[in-house]
Design goal:
Blueprint lengths: L5 E5 L20 E2 L2 E2 L8 E6 L8 E7 L3 E6 L28 E2 L5 E21 L8 E7 L7 E7 L7 E7 L5 E9 L16 E13 L8 E10 L5 E15 L4 E4 L8 E5 L6 E4 L2 E4 L13 E11 L12 E12 L4 H4 L12
Parallel strand pairs: 1-21
Antiparallel strand pairs: 2-3, 4-14, 5-13, 6-8, 7-13, 8-11, 8-12, 8-13, 9-10, 9-12, 14-20, 15-16, 15-19, 15-21, 17-20, 18-19
Amino acid sequence: MKRRIVISVFTIIISVALIAGGTMAWFTHSEDGGKTAFTAGTVSIEAGRIIDIEDSDSYKKYSTFSPDKVIDVSQGKNRRGGSVAKDRSYSDVVLDDSSDAFFSLGFGGYIIVEFESPVYAPEIVIVTEITQGAYPTESAEVYVSTSLEDDWKYVGTATNEGRKGNEKESKFDITGIPYVKYVKVVDVTEKDKFDENSDADGFDVKSIQVKGYYAEEDNWNPGDKNLRIFEITNTGTKAIHLRGKFTGSWYEYDEDAEEWVIVDNLNANVVSFELHEDEHGWEKEGGWFYYKYTIPGTYPNNEPSSVNLKINVCLDGEKTNDDYQGKRYILNGSFEAIQASNGASKAKGWKIIPSSKQE
C-alpha cells in the first residue's frame, strides 16, 4: 500500500451563536387572538478543502481508487432469519477489487468504507455486486460523505439487474461533489420476493470504488510550503463573521495494526500555517485566520455565499530532523461563524472585527 505523507482531514463545523444582551433573530410576525410568534434566524456554515486540478504545484493522481478500510458494518440476517454464512461475512474483501470474494450485507444490513485520502473532484462511484444463480432483484442504496457529520448524500441504488455473468457493476455520477472520503452501501432488497426457507442474504458487495483525484505530497521536505485551499459557505439565513484555525499531529504506520497511529514524541510545532501570498481577504491574529468582511446570509431569497481561504502549510527547515522521515502529518481545521449583527463578534472577544462590506 502506498504511503502518503500529508493528508488534509477537514472538520465541518456548524455553529449557532447566541450573544447575551443581543438577538440573533430575524423576525416574522403573525397575530391571532393576541398571540405573537417570532422565528429566529440561523447561523450555519459548511467548510471543506478544495483543490485546483490545473495547479501545477499540486501533486495529483487521477485514477479509480479503492477504499483503505471498513470503519462500520452491520450485517443483516438471511431469509430464514439466521446468520449469514461465514464465508460470505468477511467485510474487508470489498477493499480489493482484484479478488473474486464478496461480502453479503444481509437483509437490511450496511457497510461503510473509508478512503485513505479524500478523492477530490470525484466523477463516479462504482459498486460491484455478485449474484450466483437465478435470483430476484437484489438492491442497495449508495451514499457518499466528506466527514461522517450527517452529510450523507444519496447517489443511487445498485442492483443485480442486467448483470454480465455473475457480476453487475453499478456506476453513479457524482460530479459536483467537492470530494469523497466515505461510502456507505445499505441493503434495501425486498426479502418477501425470496423463498422464506432459502439462504438468500441480500445484496452481495464485491467492491466499492471512486474515480477522481488524489492530491499527494510524497516528497514533503523540510523548508517546503504546500498550498491548501478551503471553501466555506454560509448556509444560514443570517449574515456572519467568520474565522478559522488549524492544528495537526504526526503519525507513523503500524505494520502490525496496519494503520497510521499518532506519534507523541514528535513536535507538531515544526509545522506552521500562514496566509498564501495571493490571499488578501483574510488576516491572521492570535492563531486565528479572520475573514475581513461580512458574509451575507440567505434571507430573504439569496443563494448561499461562499469564500475561499488559501494557506501555506510550512515544514520548518531547521527543526525537522531525520526522526520525521516516513511519518505523516494530518492537518485538522475548524471554522467558527457568528452573527454579524449587534456587536456579537466583539462581545465574544474576536481580535479582528470584519467590516460590513468589501473595499
